[in-house]
Protein 1
Amino acid sequence: MDNSKEIEISVVAPVYNEEGNLPFLIPKLAEVLRGLGRSYEMIFVDDGSSDGSRRILKEMASQYPFIRILRLKENRGLSTALMAGMREARGEKIVTLDSDLQNDPADIPRLLEYLDRYDMATGWRRKREDTWLKKISSKIGNGVRNWLSGENIQDSACTLRAFKKECIQEIPVFNGMHRFLSTLVKMKGYRIVEVPVSHHPRKSGKSKYNIRNRMVRSFIDLLAVRWMKRRALHYEIEERI
Ligand code: UDP
Ligand code: MG
């Protein structure tokens, strides 16, 4: 990889046991990024996968010079994988997306276009392609989140986002933060827009998040975010003498 070249866009994708999806995702992503005509890198964060993801990523990295792999020692969950990858990003703009092909790389150019007017463009999966249980629980989740945190966000947990790197530099980090990223970034005064994006059914591998491992934890996180938001420091300096 040519480190001397300045990178404009860093794509960060968390990977946990996605061997069936990576061989399709990477060429698709490469085609979309090539079309942008800007310099880029792809950072795949292997969140301790136990399937063939590690081998596939290495093979792909030997074919595509702009691929970087960050392998975590153990599986730590989506928030950690995303944060670890975002911290490694060299681009001034970051794009994040799931690596299971539920997010569509084709939406990336449209999200990036918003960054001349906004600091973050976040995906809104208007027509979700998940199980009915997941769809209902997400609807309720978004509703309760908005109600208790005083927000009006349609889809708070969509990984597909484009943003300026500075947005994530000072936000509080914790396990589960990926569901509150928009609120955390907004709290720092950044401008956010929700953009409808496509969503596809998962064709290979299994979803790692379900109602059991999401509900209680994300509710506790919500109370913490609500507290943080209420207790945030707001002030303007009128004069410095
Ligand atoms: N993922 C991860 N670590 C985990 C669980 C998931 O990096 O411990 C990745 C996963 O490979 C995928 C994304 O996070 O790219 C979203 O996970 P998943 O598709 O299981 O969630 P869902 O779309 O069902 O909510
Ligand atoms: Mg998924």
Protein 2
Amino acid sequence: MIIAIDGPAGSGKSSTAREVARRLEALYIDTGAMYRAVALKAIRTGVLPESPAFTTIAESILIHLEPSADGVKVFLDGEDVSGAIRSEEVSVMSSRVSQRVDVRRRMVALQRIMAQRASDSGRDVVMEGRDIGTVVFPAADRKFFVTASAEVRARRRARQLREKGEEVDEKDLLREIHERDERDSTREASPLRLAPDARVIDTSDSSFEEQVENILTQIRGNAAADAR
Ligand code: DC
């Protein structure tokens, strides 16, 4: 079974997807982490994703995900960058690299291979991102679109960054979220959009446990219906 979980930044999608995968003992694939690793490469090399020189990077970059106790480890050209990809600078850059068609093509191919390997070995997959239900796996067995108001998402992001010791201005974060939403949903290549057959999970007013249970109930409910 392939479970696609899409939605905008800060909707609670990642932590929810990770917990759903843990409870189902499924392989968890965080596709945002892959775009973040590409972004880190852009920052480190100083080559802007909008420049033609980025083509070489897009073609040669090696990204690898490994399951870990707290979700997933991300490797960039063999180096563990799981912590380094979580800064605000990388968040902003990842939205820019994810506009590139060549980057997306490569990431989508990798995502399909990873999911295929898991399902060949009889494992369910929870894959989360922006275009999983629309582009990567349009025929996914279950599709969810996790969302929340921009204000709630900015507040959550501020809390996360403060916990990491970063100084934040919530107004700036809200503006960045609006800008990122706009870029992610209006870009030409695989914009963030709701798949017609996805279930919308609005997390603005629900607790983490409620979100996880809601998704699990729907997966189990549908599984029972499938078996009939
Ligand atoms: O989910 P996230 O914040 O870690 O994602 C980082 C960036 O990557 C975000 O700007 C959207 C982009 N992304 C994408 O374009 N497609 C995906 N499947 C996952 C993420």
Protein 3
Amino acid sequence: MQVFKFGGASVSTLDRIYKVADILKSYSGQKLLVVVSAIGKTTNALESVVTAFYRGDKEEALRQFEAVKNQHLQLAADLGLEAGFLNDFFTEVEWLLHDKPVKHFDYYYDQVVCVGELLSTTIISRFLASQQIKNSWVDVRDILRTDNNFRDARINWAVTEQKVAQQVMPLFENAEIVLTQGFIGATDENESTTLGREGSDYTAAVFANILAARAQTIWKDVPGVMNADPKQYSAATLIKELNYKEVIEMAYYGAQVIHPKTIKPLQNKGIPLLVKSFLQPDAEGTVIHDKAVAQLPPIIVYKQAQALVHLSSKDFSFVGEGLTAKVYTVFEDLHFKPNLTQNAAISLQCVVDDIAEKVEGFALALSDDFDVQVTKGLTLLTIRHYTESLLQELCADCHVLLQQKTPETVQVLLRK
Ligand code: ASP
Ligand code: MG
């Protein structure tokens, strides 16, 4: 048994969908649990639909949803499918959009956004069947049980394990491929939930864990895990081998390689994660496992849209345990976290994601105890396994506001 995850980019055009079918054909004879994301940028489009709905602009929400609908109908038609099978999904969303919002935003977000994966997997499943690639389509909301923390739902593992055993395992008796959605789940009350953006990698890992898969493969439009984003650093190179810990660190510092929650379920069962290109399925890609890896290249991660919050004590008192505790309590209350902190005698600096309402809430909550200064528009650069010369090269022409170094990692807050 293996688990495959195909991201939105791998099903964004007809050519790419044909490639996915070819890849699956080449694994014929093996049991595969396949997770497919929403097509292309559908999730962004649906986010925009729900935003319009929530601000009361029903017409705009329906108009935007119509575009999503047409795009999927067109794709189904281009793949030679009768598209009537999508109607129930469309109707469900349209009904909701005709209502007035009375619950909180995150609830509606999940009810609307989940349709992206339902549409894509239904289309792909039907298309594969039309190509004689037998598969069973599963609505993952019947399997993956979560709490009701909408938009960032946590998985109920006990229930999910039971459902996999009862409802997913038997499907492999009839078809080698079970095809389902990532990123979405459902509560005890059958309300749809989502696991956080890019959460399909995580769903795939949950299945890999529960099914004790031999391996999980994430199929992407890049050759594997690179040591930097090629759009930000043109000399980026492929890393052929990594261990779980390195990948968790990379994700933590903001590398958009793999969803950060993906590694734990795999590590817990020692399941290797392969990252491969669906454009070159025979190339090796990257393998991530628990072996020590010697000689990693420098790994470069840029986190954009950072804010520096400078807190200095009002009356010149030291920022001791009392004031420090207050700062962290505010972080906890706001579900907000520092990406970097730096202490000094009468001040504390925190680098955070510049999410306007969180930064304001943070500054306001601490304004009785501190003089608060916020600087926005910054970038946090992290280099693991750095060299001094690379650090200098990447900081040239930048204004450096803060720097922290360990023997392994350097972090620099800069304005470009
Ligand atoms: N479609 C979702 C997103 O774009 C989940 C995923 O692709 O992993 O965030
Ligand atoms: Mg994606």
